[in-house]
């Protein structure tokens, strides 16, 4: 309502000036126009809030000019009243603008802090930096008493800070994905005994992961990213420590199992024992190269082969072997022999479906021995199925493998 009233007053004053000029009366148009402009300028810096008395007095003087013209007062009197209106409006402006600049700087600082809380300095770098620069400019101008320039710079900084915050919130999923990544790492570490081999780092990772989740839910992205970074560093270190400890434990375990297999069945010359010893050698090499996962897999394969060599007489309690069936759901024995006729395009191959049995699981070594009578040719099958087999120690029930026909 007040804005409408002010607009009406200014419109009436403008109209009155035009009327009196058109009627040929001598009117101080320039001074009255200057007063009107000064009032508008004071209004633009919220003088109604910060200097209400001065602004109202300026408007009153301008209305007084109108009455003086109607009463045919002399030119100099009207001019003096218009100049008084300008002076009061300028006083309102000068009183208001420093306060407005300071208040706007405070608003911009709050907006920048809100943007920082959602990690805008990383997720919306350009906008955040621009807002920071604008706020610095506003403060510098204020110190130099360039208050109106300070106000405009703070206004722009506030706008950019709010935009940076909105942009950062639009990338909230980045934090969610980071949390999921650390969660998977921590689960992997736990599987290899991180709670035993690296309890402190595991605990720190777990606590910070929980903190990151809470921060994500409450949109405290900066807090969330800080927590997830700590969680990731400790989860990675806990995983490496657990893998190293497990790999070091598996090698002597595999040696022990192979030794028992030799004594139990007297099969030192059997192909499976030789393959087990080869896998053990691979496990030791991988351990020396700090390739802990590969070392663990090779040790497990060595123990599995040693068990096969004895006709599965070794108790599985003697070793912890991975049976290469993760992610395949419930396993049931496959009754068919697994062999199928290859299509014409693959006439140089036999297709074999990998089987699962409780105590006699398929592996490349056994499949190669079946078809080539020489298990040491397993790499021919591996090379023919590289699109499917990523690690020759692991093949899964239900896979259909190409078995190249020997020339």
Key attributes of the depicted protein:
3 strands; mainly alpha; 407 residues; 3-stranded antiparallel sheet; Membrane-bound Lytic Murein Transglycosylase D, Chain A; rod-shaped; 71% helix
Describe what you observe in this structure.
The chain is mainly alpha-helical and 407 residues long. Among the domains are: 2-96, no CATH class; 244-318; 339-404, Roll (Membrane-bound Lytic Murein Transglycosylase D, Chain A), CATH 3.10.350. Helices cover 71% and strands 3% of the residues. It has 16 helices and three strands. It has helices at residues 2-22, 29-44, 47-50, 52-70, 75-117, 120-123, 125-143, 147-169, 172-191, 194-197, 199-217, 221-265, 271-288, 292-309, 364-372, 378-384; strands at 339-340, 349-353, 400-404. Strands 1-2-3 form a three-stranded antiparallel sheet. A hairpin with an 8-residue loop joins strand 1 (339-340) and strand 2. Helix 13 packs antiparallel against helix 14. The relative contact order is 0.05. Mean pLDDT is 83; it is low at 15-24, 316-338 and 341-345.
């Amino acid at each position: 309502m007040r804005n409408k009233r002010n607009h009406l007053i200014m419109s009436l004053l403008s109209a009155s000036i035009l009327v009196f000029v058109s009627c040929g009366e001598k009117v101080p148009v320039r001074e009255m126009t200057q007063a009107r402009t000064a009032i508008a300028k004071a209004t633009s810096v919220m003088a109604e809030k910060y200097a209400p008395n001065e602004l109202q007095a300026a408007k009153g003087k301008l209305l007084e000019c109108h009455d003086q013209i109607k009463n045919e007062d002399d030119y100099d009197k009207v001019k003096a009243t218009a100049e008084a209106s300008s002076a009061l409006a300028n006083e309102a402006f000068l009183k208001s603008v420093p306060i407005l600049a300071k208040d706007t700087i405070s608003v911009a600082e709050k907006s920048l802090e809100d943007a920082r809380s959602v990690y805008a300095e990383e997720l919306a770098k350009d906008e955040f930096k621009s807002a920071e620069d604008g706020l610095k400019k506003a403060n510098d101008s204020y110190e130099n008493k360039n208050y109106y320039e300070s106000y405009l710079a703070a206004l722009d900084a506030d706008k950019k800070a709010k935009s940076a915050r909105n942009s950062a919130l639009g990338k909230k999923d980045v934090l969610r994905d980071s949390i999921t990544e650390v969660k998977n790492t921590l689960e992997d570490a736990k599987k290899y005994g991180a709670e035993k081999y690296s309890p402190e780092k595991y605990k720190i990772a777990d606590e910070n992961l929980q903190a990151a989740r809470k921060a994500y839910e409450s949109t405290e992205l900066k807090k969330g990213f800080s927590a997830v970074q700590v969680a990731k560093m400790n989860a990675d270190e806990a995983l490496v420590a657990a893998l190293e400890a497990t790999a070091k434990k598996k090698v002597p375990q595999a040696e022990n199992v192979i030794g028992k297999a030799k004594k139990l069945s007297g099969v030192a010359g059997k192909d499976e024992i030789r393959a087990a010893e080869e896998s053990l050698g691979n496990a030791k090499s991988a351990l020396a190269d700090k390739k802990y996962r590969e070392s663990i897999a090779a040790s497990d394969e060595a123990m599995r082969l040693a068990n096969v060599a004895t006709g599965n007489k070794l108790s599985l309690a003697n070793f912890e072997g991975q049976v290469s069936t993760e992610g395949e759901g419930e396993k049931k024995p496959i009754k068919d022999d697994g062999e199928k006729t290859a299509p014409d395009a693959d006439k140089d191959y036999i297709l074999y479906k990998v089987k699962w049995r409780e105590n006699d699981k398929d592996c490349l070594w056994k499949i190669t021995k079946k078809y080539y009578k020489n298990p040491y040719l397993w790499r021919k099958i591996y090379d023919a199925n590289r699109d499917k087999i990523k690690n020759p120690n692991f093949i899964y029930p239900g896979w259909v493998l190409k078995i190249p026909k020997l020339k």
